[in-house]
Amino acid sequence: MKSVIVGTAGHIDHGKTALVKALTGIDADRLEEEKRRGITIDIGFAHLELALPGGEILRLGFVDVPGHERFVRNMLAGVGGIDLVLLVIAADESVKPQTREHFDICRLLAVRRGIAVLTKSDLVDRETLDVVRLEVEEFLRHSFLDPAHSSVVAVSALTGAGLDDLKQALVEAAAEVPSKDSTALARLPIDRVFTMKGFGVVVTGTLVAGTIREEHELEVFPAGKRVRVRGVQVHGQTAEQAVAGQRTALNLAGVTTQELARGMVLAPSLTFHPTSRLGVSLTLLPSAKPLKDRARVHLHAYTFETIATVILFGQKQVLPGEAAAAQLRLAEPTLLLPGDRFIMRQFSPVVTVGGGVVLDASPIPRGMDTFLITLAEGDAQAILRARIARRSHAGIDLAQLTAETGWTRQVIETHLASAALRAEVSRIEDLAVHLPALEGLKSLITGTVATFHQENPLVAGVSKEELRDRVQASSEVFTAALEMLVSENKLEAVGEIVHLPGRGVVLKDEEAESQKIIEHAFASAGLKVPALKDVLAGLKVDKARAQKIVTLLLRDKVLVKLSADLVFHRDALLDLRKRMSSEKVKFPKIDVARFKDLTGVSRKYAIPLLEYLDREHVTRRVGDERVIL
After folding, report:
1. Are 269 and 304 in contact (CB under 8 A)?
2. 222 upstream amide cis, omega within 30 of 0
3. pTM, 2 dp
4. What contacts 24+ positions apart, CB below 8 Å, involve 44-52?
5. Which of 203, 236, 268 marks a domain boundary?
């Protein structure tokens, strides 16, 4: 069964709701005020099933929108997810102001298919109907409803004239609507929230992507609330699942109606991030006034609306009929993804002035304008390459790529496996890193090590931790880059120390002997260590070389200095930490006196050792005692 969403559009009192009722038998005006006043105020819904030529069932979901200029914001909440439009024009009035505005909105939302419907044909004679038809055809020329390839159907909801022709035109137009991807990540913009007796909280909307089934866990954006799907209805009928392109109602658990509202979006949990910054391509209508940099506008996207500030790149204003790249700064966060369309309405007076498409919902400051051009003009692989490249050597993991693009992990993996991207992107575990940026990081690492040697001629090399901090790289990317450099013989790594080939410190015989003496002196002393100056005084080497040897032992973390003349062997400190852990079982707290008894050291050693344990988060000082953590 193929599902297609049909939206109505047109001026007030041109017969949109009556037409939907004549086609489906369903009155889309559900509000008491709508029935009393005889006008549509909020969006309404209906459905119809027709047979396609091949025997397949076509399920049409109708979204009926208000035509009054005061309710255009409600119209915009309904028209965002439609596949084709019924542009309704009364035969006794022809094209009116909201006809033009609604049609502009459909074009800005990139609606590709539709039917122009001349309603109330029973109120005019044949000659008048022909004249109106010519006016409408001229109005539609050079648009997606150009009469050369789209139908103009005259009908009467009162007499039923033309309804069969309209149904046939709907079948033909719907056949050209491409099927939506049910394997994509699901998104349901909410247009109604209510409570149903015996069921609880229910939301409705047009499922714009993916599939939603019973028991799915979803997240409410931008609130971040987790919900569970208790039940699914499609076009008013219970179903096991809803797929993209269907009018969908969900019975939700884990949330109240007070926590939900029109404009929120349901999507898989732990997948996307709400945003209040959008990189976009926008277009002004020829009838609009120039749009100035930092102008405020009303933004509408699917069922969401807010105030946005337009930040233009490299220009002061956009002229009527022109397009531009820009950033939109939203007053409220929402969930939008690349490819989503939006409408802009002037801040005051509130009239439609333009619209556009979201290119990036995860903007970063640098190079925004050129990046947006790539997103607007590139294919999927070019877009993926640009998103990876802008992260430089930090890389980007596949989960973040999913959040940025809206593509599934499988789609991203397929693109990354292509020969073109393999030549430009390196995979480091779950990270994708731009190869030129990775090569730049390798050069930076090598240069940083060389600089360290110049600044510290007596030191064997720089520790990995210090080197990573200097080049400001993530642990995964730094480790991978360092391993590449070592395999290419551009660097050498011994334990935690990195140095240029041939630049490691080589100790002479007497220096090597002195190193053993120093290490043994502290290893054998346990916690009752000798003074460092006394150990160095007994060596055969001079003071400068003795200090160089100590520096090497400290950099290799064989020795640990706790004060100017108090040095401990790492094994002694490791043993102390283990003893403290064992002590915690019997005594969760310890004071200086007990510590001295436990370790057999004097206060001279006890205080620095306790302060070391505090720094290492083995203990925490509370008054005169330490809590063993």
Report:
1. no
2. yes
3. 0.78
4. 44/17, 44/20, 45/204, 45/247, 46/20, 46/21, 47/235, 47/236, 47/247, 48/23, 48/24, 50/167, 50/170, 50/171, 51/171, 52/2, 52/171, 52/174, 52/175
5. 268
The C-alpha atoms of residue 11 and residue 45 are separated, in whole angstroms, by 18
Alpha helices in 157-234 (DSSP H): 163-175
Low-confidence stretches of the chain (pLDDT < 50) are 34
**Beta strand spans in 74-224 (E):** 84-90, 113-119, 152-154, 188-189, 192-196, 200-206, 211-213, 217-221
| pLDDT at res. 36 | 57
Q: Is 573 domain-assigned?
A: yes
- The residue type of 550 is V
CB 91 within 8 A of CB 15: no
What does the alpha-carbon distance between residue 110 and residue 157 come to, in Å, rounded to a whole number?
29
* Encoded tokens for 429: 């575990």
- Residue-level pLDDT at 180: 84
Q: What's residue 195's pLDDT?
A: 92
Q: Please report the pLDDT score of residue 266 as a whole number.
A: 97
Q: Is 6 found in the same domain as 155?
A: yes
Contact present, 20 and 99 (Cβ < 8 Å)? no
**What CATH number does the domain containing 597 carry?**
1.10.10.10
Instruction: Output phi, psi for 170, to 5 deg.
Output: -65, -40
Looking at 332, 354, 370, the residue that finishes a domain is 370
* Inter-axis angle of helices 592-599 and 603-615, nearest 10: 100
Which residues are CB-contacts of 343 (< 8 A; sequence separation ≥ 6)?
76, 105, 108, 109, 299, 300, 301, 352, 354, 355
Residue 55 lies in a domain: yes
Q: Are residues 143 and 40 in the same domain?
A: yes
What is residue 124's predicted lDDT score, i.e. its pLDDT?
A: 94
